[in-house]
Design goal:
2 domains; 4 helices; three-stranded mixed sheet; single chain; alpha+beta
Length: 182
């Protein structure tokens, strides 16, 4: 390995399909995920090529081309899907992971390394790397949205119950009046 080249440049030298594509521009924290993915894909097809390996919407995207059989491509797609899924639980800054399955690999466990959002921007980042504290867990945002949805629908239900009570009150008044007039 050339010590002057980044790990991304090394991967591009080995695998980049056509010069001029972006190649690997993934953040450093995902180095071990990308390298594991590359190693597994290369075992399945030593001649596979990457077109892009990057972050998009806070998770890894690994685009590649192969001339392997359809069955092998399906296995390669599963490897890529797992790498992309794992990136949503691995800090793109430091590489710490909230995936318990990585403890036996020497990857530091950090429960805060999750997909987070700030103003529409997504990152998978731990609290230590989010030095400004700008990002909030997408799970927390989803929980808040679900709570707000529940509050909204509970309010609607209360309104409907009140409307139903109001209708029942009117109906009872009419019925009472009709009975008294008979």
């Amino acid at each position: 390995m050339d010590e002057t080249k980044s790990w991304q440049a090394e991967l591009n030298d080995r695998r980049l399909k056509t010069r001029g594509w972006y190649g690997c521009i993934a953040p450093d924290g995902w180095k071990w995920i990308v390298e594991d993915c590359d190693r597994l894909l290369a075992k399945l097809d030593p001649k596979y090529e990457i077109t892009q390996v990057k972050e998009k919407f806070g998770t890894l995207r690994y685009y590649y081309e192969t001339v392997a059989s359809r069955d092998t491509q399906e296995i390669m797609d599963a490897v890529v899907s797992e790498a992309e899924r794992l990136s949503a639980r691995t800090c793109e800054g430091c590489g710490n992971s909230s995936a318990m399955s990585n403890l036996n690999r020497g990857i530091k466990y950090d429960s805060t390394a999750v997909l987070k959002s700030s103003g529409g921007w997504y990152r998978t980042i731990c609290d230590s790397c989010d030095t400004e504290g700008r990002y909030v867990s997408v799970d927390a945002l989803n929980a808040r949205e679900q709570y707000e949805d529940l509050e909204f629908y509970a309010g609607k239900a209360r309104e409907q119950v009140q409307e139903g009570q109001d209708i029942l009150d009117v109906f009872l008044k009419i019925a009472k009046k009709d009975l008294l007039e008979e």
